[in-house]
Amino acid sequence: MRFRAGIENVTTFFRIMQSVEKLQKKCIIKFTEENMHVICNSDANEGGIQVWSQIKIDSIFNNYRIQSNSNNEITVNLTCEAIMGALRSVSTSSGVSNSASGSSYETDEVIVKLAKKNDQAVLNFEITGTTAGGRKVKIGHDVRIEVMKPVDVARLSEPMCPEPDIHVLLPSLQKMRTIVERLRTQSDLLAVRASHNGCLRLSINTESVKVDTDWKDCTIPQMMKEGASQDSADEPPPDPEQLFSVLVSVKSFLKFLSSHVVSTTTIACVCQNHCLILYVYIGDVADAGGVLTFYIPAIIDDE
Amino acid sequence: MQATFDSSALKPFTRALACLSRYGEELCIYASSETLSLFCTNSSKSAYCRFKFNKEFFSKYRVGDPARGAHDGVLGQLMAKSLLSILKHKTVELTLERCEISIVEGVSAEEAADESQDGLESKLIVRLHCKHNVIKTHKLLLSGSTTLLAPGAPDTSNETLLRIGPRAIRDMIEQFSLPKGVKSDPQLIWTFGETDVSVRSLESSIDTRSKAQLATELAISADEFDLYNLHEAPTTIAFHLREFNATIAFAEICGLGLDIRFTDPTEPLFIDVEGDNFETLFVISTSQPPGSATQTHLASTDSKKRSREDTPADSARFKKSMKVVQSTTDRASLARDTTPARSTLSLSKQMLPPANPATPTSNHVSNYQSSHAPHLASTSKLSQELPLFLPGSSQLSILDEAALRESGLGIEHMTAEEFDNMLEAKGDEPPVRTGRPCHFSSNRLARPGGRTMN
């Protein structure tokens, strides 16, 4: 089992971990020949929220070499905070860390590889840089990992979802977060609704209070349906007024909103009464460098 | 004791207090005729911090009353955060014109019984003169502690001296993502070689038993240090970061370099930072990490490593690092420099012999009465523009005191209680005495720090 790569784009890697860290302490990273997958699927997650993300290797790494007995795939379990600590000490022009703790070492190179230290598998990050005084500095981080057995890896599977009823481009996640934070204190359940005329509505409805927040004129992207049925042209256009809704846990929706640090574009897919899928694009959508996919299952409310 | 400083001196003073409050909770103040020292020790006695301000730092500085002899220093103890919160307030920074700090000693037990007033405790009075004639007066109780803690002078024969700018050392420490939190107390292991320095986080050998998820190691050239006089290579020491970070933060915000001195790993680390009319000393206990190279001075097997983690197996828990500070009754040692280079200077600054309870002067009692500040502005010979809070009567001259007596109010014959009742006001000016020598009784129990009055 061998793995070694140079990290070209530390910022993106760091931001992904930053978003994921808010959901779960530990996460699974699966390295394949083509992609890196970051997976959070713990059952203990609030409201059953899961994250499955797929990032093209080229958008983060260079000189990527991987070799293993399981189809050249390596899946590891690690602590988000630890890997963030390793990535944070690299300064990039776009500023990985916040300005208060910006490192003033100029990074020359970052190499990550799988290693074993004292019988413990680690992901070793070697950073070579230059100090403000122009001298060389070398920093090494060892992130403790647990390599997952093929049996367990096989059990990892994305949740099954039907064809979404509607896709909607979400407004600024930061603004949504302010609203939802207020709603959180009032209710445990949040209804996310969207209609084809560009209306997005977040509602809560409890015994004491009923609140609706509407965003109008949201973009409804027309997604190509996979395995498009032959009769797609014959399907009647959807009713613009009809609201497709799904009921989710407020807390899990808030957890998703904390990924606002990375998102440039986010598309929400409502599968009525089944789940809410959110695609958070990292970087430019066109680049397709990375997508964080959030699955929030619906809560079936009998009312 | 009275000291006045203006707004330009506020920043370094406040920063000093902020640094002190990161070291320990209780702050000791020692005012001698030449310097004002603020110092504190942390709860596990493994770190000590002292700021010594020369009298030139202040626009006015007076300790004791030269007329009455006895140049004994003034000593008191209070909560660092209390004083810090007074000075760090944002309106203070913007509007302060000058700040007066004075210490008013408490009376001895016998007199207190007679007078039945609350003069047993000494008080620290902070008077902030701000714009628009606003004067804010804060009174903090000072407790006299019986145990004074001061670091011992190091043996300099095998000393290593390093000098580094604060930014450079902060960059090094920042590479380590260390757990932040009240309970965490991370340590770093430093190895100084001939030409290179390496720093590791304590659990750098990740093994299956330790819980650490991340281990970091940094290797950097010794040239990053402005001065690198290593006694013997390689030397490895380990120490906790909490207080060290406070020192670095202070040095960085003041733009001052750090002089770091240490001998062998079991002796503490000394850091000097020198500024404009003040100098600071930080002492942090160190230990020799397990498995590092032993040197000619063999470390003792029970290292003075302090441990705050709850590991039952670790019997070194809460072990006092005796080398950092030791009890002393010698007040002179409080202000004494521990830098060898400055030892010649320090002799001239040597403070007076240890404190002994000084006998109170006989006219003490009567003076007390007459020094109540009147609340009647008309009889006051005090400043022309009437401040909101009348200044303490330590500024009353003999003439003013005479004026009080002549005013015929009969104030001078009142006891504190009667006076208070007359005015029916809380937070009156405390009985202020002009420069009285300090006489902390050795029997007095140290009370926990002061509460803010008023």
TrEMBL record, chain A:
Its main location: nucleus. InterPro entries: DNA_clamp_sf, HUS1, HUS1/Mec3. GO terms for cellular component: checkpoint clamp complex; nucleolus; site of double-strand break. The keyword Nucleus applies. It is found in: Nucleus. Keywords: Nucleus. Pfam families: Hus1. It comes from the Eukaryota. Coiled coil: none annotated. GO terms for biological process: double-strand break repair via homologous recombination; meiotic DNA integrity checkpoint signaling; mitotic DNA replication checkpoint signaling; mitotic intra-S DNA damage checkpoint signaling; nucleotide-excision repair; telomere maintenance. Belongs to the HUS1 family. This is Checkpoint protein. It comes from Lentinula aciculospora.
UniProtKB/TrEMBL annotation, chain B:
Residues 302-311 have a biased composition (Basic and acidic residues). InterPro entries: DNA_clamp_sf, Rad9/Ddc1. Residues 286-379, 428-454 are annotated as: Disordered. It holds the Pfam family Rad9. Gene3D superfamilies: 3.70.10.10. Signal peptide: none annotated. One of its GO terms (biological process) is DNA repair. GO terms for cellular component: checkpoint clamp complex. Residues 286-301, 340-349, 358-379 have a biased composition (Polar residues). This is Rad9-domain-containing protein.
